[in-house]
Amino acid sequence: MKALVYHGIGQKHWEEKALPQIIEPTDAVVRIIKTTICGTDLHILKGDVPAVEKGRILGHEGIGIVESIGKSVRNINVGDKVIISCITVCGSCSYCKRQLYSHCNDGGWILGHKIDGTQAEQVRIPHADNSLHRLPEGINEEAALMLSDILPTGLEIGVINGKVQPGQTIALIGAGPVGLSALLASQFYSPAHIIMIDTDDNRLHVAQQFGANTIINPARQNVVETIKELTDGLGVDVAIECVGIPATFKICQDIITAGGYIANVGVHGKSVELHLEELWIKNITITTGLVNTSSTPMLLKSVQSGKISPEKLVTHRYPLSEIETAYEVFGNASQEKALKIVLTAE
Questions:
Q1: At the topology level of CATH, where does 2-149+292-344 sit?
Q2: Please, are residues 45 and 10 in contact by the beta-carbon 8 Å criterion?
Q3: What ranges do the domains of the chain cover?
Q4: For residue range 281-319, what is the model confidence (pLDDT) as tens digits?
Q5: β-strands 314-319, 12-16: how paired?
Q6: CA-wise closest residue to 260 among 287, 225, 232
Q7: CA-wise closest residue to 266 among 107, 113, 48, 83
Q8: Which in 9, 11, 67, 126 has the greatest CB count within 10 A?
């Protein structure tokens, strides 16, 4: 089969690899229908995730058809169309019993990280019963693909960790795919005012279409002063960091109100400054996390009922064989006006 293989910092190639095989009785092999590229994949190529070894097939998002199953798989059948969760879940370890699936002793984020991933024609999925979600008939495949990672991430690590409540003023820093996913998910909780902060005017325009009440471009506006004006000098109740760089984490610290929540979603490749000399007296809470995907079944029902339409995040589509071109487009997202890119197997 063909797959996108990591060969070191800045190096990847679409090449021949052996077909995946059932190794454990709880495994399934899935033929990819659609996959996509995540910002985390770009972090891997920058060298921010050193655990990824040369020769690894990248990718941790996808939908597909189950080709084969191990003898212990009970809830998934050959021929099922499924969402591949970015988090692999054994379901029985101490972390899984606490719903901390991202820290599963025999799983967590391993696809495209510690084992071969989904940017390929086929992929092996460990613990298939807990790590695949059967798709209902008629559901939009592109919407379903957004449930592999970014929508659960925005909801769980941004909105739920940030304790978003009705009537609050919240700010999202970073209008990329995860930031926009958090924007969509935040509306489940009816905040009174949603502020989106980004230097990309196109993404800010999209954020307005998705429900942001106010947009701020730090390249032209003073973020702190603008938010003080909007909040009578108090600051925002929740700041959700969706980029993963020191500057955006500092913005969160600068705009949070007393008793507020800073929810970090972005993947950080460098250390950041924590200004405890200013924050210690403000009774704030800072949360971090890797998505557990415990919300995926609920989000799937919400998509099925039409309450949320994450397929709106898709801006570009390519055949899977053109994945290297797709990476170039995604890596130049601002110029290309790219959000999520769908790669479809021929």
A1: Quinone Oxidoreductase; Chain A, domain 1 (3.90.180)
A2: yes
A3: 2-149+292-344, 152-288
A4: 999 999 999 999 999 999 999 999 999 999 999 999 999
A5: unpaired
A6: 287
A7: 48
A8: 126
